[in-house]
Amino acid sequence: MSAFVAIVESGSIVAAAKRLRLSKSLVSDRLAELEKSLGVVLLHRTTRKLTLTEDGAAFLERARRIVSEIEDAVADISERRGTLAGPVRIAAPVTFSRLHLGPALYPFLSRHPELKLTLEIDDRRVDALADGYDAVIRHGAIADTRLIAWKLASSRRMLVASADYLERHGAPKTLEDLGSHRGIFYANRGVSDWRFQTEAGPVLVRAKPALVVNNGDMLRDAAIAGLGLTLLPAFIAGQPIKDGLLQVVEMDQEPELEFIYMAHPQGRNASAKLRAIADHLRKTFGDPPYWEA
Question: Is the pTM here over 0.70, yes or no?
Answer without folding.
Answer: yes
